[in-house]
Amino acid sequence: MELTQKSSQLQRKGQSRYLALFKAAMSVFLIGALLAKSDLDKYAELIRNSSPLYLGLALLITVVSIILSAYKWQLLVIAQGFTVPLRRLISSYFVGLFFNNFMPTSIGGDVVRVLDLRKMTSSGPAAAASVVAERVLAAFTLGLIVLCGVAFGTGVTARFSVAILVFVGICALALLGILYAHKLAPLLARYEASIAGKLKETAESIRSSVENKNTLVKVLFYSFIFQLMVIAINIFIIKALGLHVPIAFVFLFIPIIFAITMLPISMNGLGLREATYAYFFTQAGLSTEESVTISLFFFLIVTLVSLIGGVIFALRK
Length: 317
Fold this sequence. Notes:
Largest sheet: none
Number of strands: 0
Number of helices: 13
Shape: globular
Mean pLDDT: 83
């Protein structure tokens, strides 16, 4: 039995190693493919001529958006009967954002938040439930942002009608999944008893997080505001580069780009994010270099803000 367990652990480690190598290779391939068909001098020119004022505004909004995210997370934690000071959740959110820089997916920092909150509440399932609920409710509002894009531009809608329908449908299913997670508990019986028990407890914790309609409406509202902030950050970056993109395109593209970036097929979305920016924003009339530069500035701004989390983590030690 012991040999079997050790063999299974070694096999999982090997699979994780190969998966990490695949993601790294995918990031390198995508970045290489973009650079191969780009004019590097154009990147330098765009960066050199960018407006510090608009970039500064984008940076400020990024910081405020993290604080807002921590507040809506607190609402879900309170709904479960726990009292955690907002400053501690803000601190945890920044630390999670910092560790995102070293995780294989763009949601890797959520694991750090779960571990942090588990220490504060002494409940792993409750911690996981609040983070999952916060993430999924935010994902649902991505669909609402896309619908705003539809309202802004019918011509754009016609070109991407299938993608819009699929994306909004997935966002709606995500909300239903959160609202009825506890109904799936009977399906967990086939898992090992200890695992099934934890999953059931987490599902019940999710239910307690969102069953209060007042809390649910508030979190959805603040999630929508957060997504508008992400749109605003990208708009300010576009303005900083002296580019023009119809607002309907920004509302449609950014939610879809962020959803794609969450796919665990590259290192923290690196390369995948730049490729999706290039694909979508060239549809709006921008060049590959202009599209990728928007993505790079967004990445650099978020990375810079995440360093706040690095300082907080260092001070903890």
